[in-house]
Structure to design on (157 residues):
């Protein structure tokens, strides 16, 4: 099966960052990272999800956190220099990032937003993040991800 490269994969190629595209079966009724981890046969702690938030001062920013967790809005606001923040409404995701729910990658959004990556990422050799479409994950080194998105490692949970 030929896997078409996503924009996120092309950006990693350009940056000369090693990665593997990993396909999985999509379940439209379950877009959770837990489902993705089960499909990949991987630890859900290594499958990270990408959330877009809006802060009262900074505007939009990105949090990349372990898939089974929920972002702590107080901590996210603090690390991003905001008093408060909230997850953006689902309908804003595609126009803002170019990605749909269940296929939002921290790499290759329409605009580069400040990106915060949960500190647990650094304990793994390989992380899984969305490749920018449902049914496809990127496996890469957390350090390469941090470098590519100019990520700030923080406690977000």
């Amino acid at each position: 099966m030929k896997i078409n490269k996503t924009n996120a994969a092309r950006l990693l190629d350009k940056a000369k960052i090693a990665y593997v595209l990993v396909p999985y079966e999509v379940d439209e009724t379950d877009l959770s990272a837990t489902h993705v981890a089960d499909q990949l046969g991987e630890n859900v702690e290594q499958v990270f999800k990408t959330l877009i938030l809006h802060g009262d001062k900074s505007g939009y920013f990105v949090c990349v956190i372990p898939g089974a967790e929920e972002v702590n809005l107080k901590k996210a606001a603090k690390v991003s220099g905001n008093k408060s923040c909230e997850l953006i409404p689902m309908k804003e995701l595609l126009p803002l990032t170019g990605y749909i729910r269940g296929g939002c990658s921290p790499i290759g959004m329409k605009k580069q937003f400040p990106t915060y990556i949960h500190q647990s990422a650094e304990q793994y050799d390989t992380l899984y993040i969305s490749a920018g479409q449902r049914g496809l994950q990127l496996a890469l080194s957390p350090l390469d991800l941090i470098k590519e998105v100019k990520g700030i490692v923080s406690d977000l949970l």
About this structure: Strands lie at 19-23, 48-55, 59-66, 85-87, 115-118, 127-133, 136-140, 152-154. DSSP finds five helices and eight strands in the chain. The CA atoms of residues 11 and 108 lie 7 Å apart. The first helix runs from residue 7 to 14.
